[in-house]
Write a sequence for this structure.
């Protein structure tokens, strides 16, 4: 073998060893990787910063929990309505999306212990002339809202509330409910004004975030008493138990208080 050939084959061997090491590293990482699915249009729980990074209360919380369990976390942004099908299709492993624990969803996935309580609310554009009856008599309120064009995100409990309380009861025409893939698109229409949309119904903490430093206002709270949970595939009891234990500990820690202050105060 001439000298050049020798150097070449030595380099080849080194390259192959390097590749093998790199590949084994990948395989190891894959085993401990968890893909978290979210719908990043729901500040302060999940949203994107100016650099396109997905951030928020849920994201920090779920990352801390899964990292303590020695997982590497990847976050995927998908439409809210596609989260449960994606979990079932195994393209994601955990849902962290301010998702309300409901009976209907419990038939399809498993939920962690509850980590946050929320009600629904009505968001309007200030000075749009849209008026609702703010009395705490639910009948007066629903009657006043039934003639309006209402926006909500597909598949959410907000959309469900309108369906059950206004459409199914015959109070409101189905055409008055406009469903959006993303709440941010509903908010863009609200900002255009009543020609597009009169009000949005959505979770109160998120409505408050949309109302901050904007021309929007939360005018009513619809008491629904919802609890958010993290979602995992049905039957993944081991993962669920580990998440629950870690979540319980996390919620009693100072880190939790720090996160609450950071995102809600
Ligand atoms: N909490 C609501 C629900 O579960 C909305 C969640 C969301 O839009 N991210 O339907």
């Amino acid at each position: 073998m001439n000298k050049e050939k020798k150097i070449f084959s030595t380099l080849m061997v080194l390259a192959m060893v390097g590749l093998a090491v790199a590949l084994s590293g990948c395989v190891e990482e894959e085993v401990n990787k968890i893909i978290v699915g979210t719908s990043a249009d729901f500040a302060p729980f999940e949203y994107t910063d100016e650099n396109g990074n997905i951030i928020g209360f849920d994201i920090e919380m779920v990352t801390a929990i899964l990292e303590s369990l020695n997982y590497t976390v990847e976050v995927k942004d998908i439409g809210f309505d596609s989260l449960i099908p994606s979990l079932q299709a195994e393209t994601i492993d955990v849902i962290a999306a301010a998702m309300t624990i409901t009976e209907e969803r419990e038939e399809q996935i498993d939920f962690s212990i509850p980590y946050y309580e929320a009600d629904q609310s009505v968001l309007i554009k200030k000075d749009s002339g849209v008026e609702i009856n703010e009395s705490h008599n639910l009948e007066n309120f629903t009657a006043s809202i039934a003639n309006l064009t209402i926006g909500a995100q597909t598949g959410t409990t907000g959309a469900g509330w309108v369906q059950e309380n206004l459409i199914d009861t015959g109070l409101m025409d189905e055409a008055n409910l406009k469903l959006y893939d993303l709440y941010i698109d509903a908010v863009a229409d609200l900002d255009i004004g009543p020609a597009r949309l009169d009000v949005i119904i959505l979770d109160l903490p998120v409505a408050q975030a949309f109302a901050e430093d904007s021309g929007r206002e939360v005018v009513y709270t619809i008491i629904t008493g919802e609890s958010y949970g993290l979602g995992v595939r049905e039957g993944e009891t081991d993962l669920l138990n580990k998440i629950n234990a870690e979540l319980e500990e996390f919620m009693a820690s100072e880190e939790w208080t720090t996160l609450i202050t950071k995102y809600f105060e």
About this structure: The pocket of glutamine is lined by residues 39, 42, 80, 97-100, 153, 156-157, 203, 226 (CB under 6 Å).
